[in-house]
Each structure stands twice: as structure tokens, then as C-alpha cells.
Automatic annotation (TrEMBL):
Transmembrane segments: none annotated. PANTHER family: TRANSCRIPTIONAL REGULATOR, TRANSCRIPTIONAL REGULATOR, MARR FAMILY. Residues 1-139 form the HTH marR-type domain. Pfam families: MarR (PF01047). It comes from Paracoccus stylophorae. Keywords: DNA-binding, Transcription, Transcription regulation. This is MarR family transcriptional regulator. PROSITE patterns: HTH_MARR_1, HTH_MARR_2.
Length: 154
């Protein structure tokens, strides 16, 4: 019988747990209260001002229903605004506030420290190879996800 530690799925789940724990520790130590999904949301809204909620969900590969709660919490904290789109009254445009912009600028050292800490055991070539392989796995497995990545901006 195969040991659980020999299964890629188990190791990927563990790496995700470690990644989230490192993110929480680094951002908390820097004085921030933000989850990885909230950070991804704010970063994507910054990069695509006026994006709608459905497109945002596709770009960060997150469930459309759940992302609504994430957006509500970020809006309540003053990091972004939602406005009704003129071309589609059912859709909302998302825009960062000055507070959201400021947060993204000041949190960058903690984000970089998280990534560096997670990848610390690997040398530069191993890091590049890891990113190449994990990119291939996520790209080819995307269609199996309950919230697939959809690059709606191309």
C-alpha cells in the first residue's frame, strides 16, 4: 500500500497549508490582517481597474459565489469600491480605493518575505524548475478545478 507521504496530492495540500501559514505569519508580523485570497483580489483589481466580479473570479481561479463575500469584506474595510456598471445593471465594477492602493504598496515586503521563506530550501535553478513544473501541472489540470482559471482579459 502507498504511504500518504508518497502521494503528490498530499504533498501539494501540505505545501498549500505551509504557504497559507507563512503568509499569515509574515503579514501579521508586519501589522496586516489579510488572507492570500484577499491579497490576490486586491492585486488583480489594481491591475484591472473596473473589472467585474465574474471576471475577477476567473482571473484568480476562485469560486464566483465565494468571491462575493471576499469583495464585501474588502469593501467594508475601505479597500475597494463596487459601482453598478452602466452597460449591465447586474454587474458591478471594482476599483481600489486610496486605502487599498496604500495597503498593496506597504504590504509588498511581507509578501516578498513570504515567497522567499517558502522557496528558501531551493537554489535559483531549483526555484525556476519548481515554478515551471507547478505551472505545467496547474495549466494542464485547470479544467478539473471547480473554479478554473479563466484568462478573460486576453
Amino acid at each position: 500500500m502507498t504511504k500518504i507521504y508518497d502521494l503528490p496530492g498530499h504533498q501539494i495540500r501540505r505545501l498549500h497549508q505551509i504557504s497559507v501559514a507563512l503568509f499569515a505569519a509574515q503579514t501579521k508580523a508586519a501589522g496586516f490582517d489579510l488572507t492570500p485570497v484577499q491579497y490576490g483580489t486586491l492585486s488583480t483589481v489594481r491591475d484591472h481597474p473596473g473589472i467585474d466580479q465574474a471576471t475577477l473570479a476567473g482571473l484568480i481561479a476562485h469560486d464566483r459565489v465565494t468571491i462575493g463575500g471576499v469583495i464585501s469584506r474588502l469593501e467594508a474595510r475601505g479597500y475597494l469600491t463596487r459601482t453598478v456598471r452602466k452597460d449591465d445593471r447586474r454587474a458591478r465594477s471594482l476599483t481600489l480605493t486610496e486605502r487599498g492602493e496604500s495597503l498593496l504598496k506597504t504590504i509588498q515586503p511581507a509578501i516578498r518575505a513570504t515567497q522567499d521563506q517558502m522557496m528558501a530550501p531551493l537554489n535559483e535553478d531549483e526555484r525556476a524548475e519548481f515554478m515551471r513544473l507547478i505551472g505545467r501541472l496547474t495549466e494542464t489540470g485547470n479544467r478539473f478545478s471547480r473554479a478554473p482559471y479563466e484568462n478573460c482579459m486576453e
